[in-house]
Every structure is written in C-alpha cells, then in structure tokens.
C-alpha cells in the first residue's frame, strides 16, 4: 500500500505505508501521518502514475509518459476519475 499526499510547496509525493517521513525535492521533510492522504494505491507503479497525473492536474504540464502508462488500463481510468473529484 502506498499513500499519496502533498507537500506544503504543492508537490505531490507518495510513500510506502508505514514509512514515517518522506523528503520532498524542495528540501522539506514531511511527516506522512500529519498530511491529508489524497489517495491510497497498491503498488509503487500505480503511486508513481497517480502522482504524475495529479501534478499534471495541478500544473497543467505535459510531462513524460511511457507507453505503459498510456495503454488502456481500467485501473488507471479509475484513478483518473478519483483525481478529477479532488
Ligand atoms: Zn515540498
């Protein structure tokens, strides 16, 4: 299980469940328990995808995608729907 949350700087991060802290690229160390969890996913791959999708929603960037990520995947479509509700 991976937890997805945001840093104060706005970046979206993920951490494996049970990990106490996560360092953001802005330099801040986040206490995972102190953050509102945006989403929970099962695998690191899904977490990475969800983070990328959220960053795109927030910043409107068209960041790099792999062929795997754009394939027609039911689970990813579910994530897309969840993100749109945030
Ligand atoms: Zn940050």
UniProtKB/TrEMBL annotation:
InterPro entries attached to this UniProt entry: DUF1922, MTH1184
Superkingdom of the source species: Archaea
Domain DUF1922: 1-56
Pfam families linked: DUF1922 (PF09082)
Regions annotated as coiled coil: none
Record Gene3D superfamilies: Structural Genomics, Unknown Function 30-nov-00 1gh9 Mol_id (3.90.820.10)
The protein's name in its UniProt record: DUF1922 domain-containing protein
Protein species of origin: Methanobrevibacter olleyae
Source species taxonomy: Archaea, Methanobacteriati, Methanobacteriota, Methanomada group, Methanobacteria
């Amino acid at each position: 299980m991976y937890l997805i949350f945001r840093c104060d700087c706005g970046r979206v991060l993920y951490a494996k469940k049970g990990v106490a802290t996560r360092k953001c690229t802005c330099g801040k160390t986040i206490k995972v328990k102190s953050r509102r969890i945006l989403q929970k996913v099962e695998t690191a791959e899904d977490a990475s995808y969800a983070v990328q999708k959220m960053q795109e929603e927030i910043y409107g960037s068209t960041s790099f995608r792999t062929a795997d990520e754009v394939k027609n995947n039911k689970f990813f479509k579910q994530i897309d729907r969840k993100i749109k509700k945030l």
